[in-house]
Amino acid sequence: MTHSLENIIKNLDKDINSLSVSELRKKYLSKNGILPSLFTDIKNIPSSERKEYGQEVNSIKQRVENALSNNTQRDTDTSVVEKIDPTAPFDLNTSQQKKPRILDMKGSSHVLMQEIGSILEIFQKMGFDILESRQIDDDFHMFESLNFPKGHPARDMYDTFWTDDGLVLPAHTSTMQNRALRKFGPPPIRVVLPGRCFRHEATDASHEHTFYQIEGIYVDRDISVANMLATIKEYLQEYLGKELDIKMQPAFFPFTEPDIEFIISCPFCDKKGCSTCGYIGWIELMGCGMIHPNVLTSGGIDPKKYTGFAWGVGIDRLTAIRRGIGDIRKLREGDIKFLNQF
Ligand code: DAH
Asked: Which residues form the Aminoacyl-transfer RNA synthetases class-II family profile domain (predicted)?
């Protein structure tokens, strides 16, 4: 082994560990680099040592090439431009070491679908039917059948999207009340109506233009506010896995009388105040009330014989509370890292 070869081998480890990709490539592989000159020297090596020399040089070359392809050097050199694939899923280009996650990802249901599934399961156990709401509807189901006459100012509370031919993207699942009363009547009627809703409004951490709700209807003889409070409380305790205190607050909906805002004690801080409840200890969760006689009549139910209650709750809101999500817009961003948590 020649003296310089010995030195080169001695320094090789240090170089591999300390030089950047391009420095290493330049020092060993470039035209004036170490390896080409070692190869040129072969002809000057006595023939008895040539074989051993050749093996040593080849092994140096191999180690340099391995180091370059494994990319094990600290790459501090900005002149090295790594190829990126602009069509790849968003995080594939961030590190060469990372396995393409899309390939080993199994399909899974979206967290909102998981939540809807567990809520429906609770209501099924409580004896409720299920009917999905529509994603496009008409003025009669969105307003008229719910006791919003044409020109009623309360229509403004439900600003949504309309098609040119007068169809509407429903702003709430209450659009299904009339259909449910007709389909499941005569009473007893117990039905939950999950579905996608839309509102024409600016988004923020707790508002979206697209979201899910679950509507519930219960109609029978002698049904009162007490039945409503017990049913909703039971369902929420089962869903949130916690004993809850409840409060009622007046609200306004044309389709109920009385109209109630259903409030629960914060399941996370037991009314002490935390970030989930905005440090007030209580959460205004949903609208509910006794179904207005006009709504019952329009659904073919005689309000003198039967009474009932209804409620509508936002699933995105419930999901955010139960799963500790600070911003409901995350639910629709399609960020795989976020979604894989669930
Ligand atoms: N549809 C109402 C909304 O989205 C919520 C609601 C309130 C539904 C009272 C009901 C109800 O069924 O009785 O704002």
From this structure: 188-321
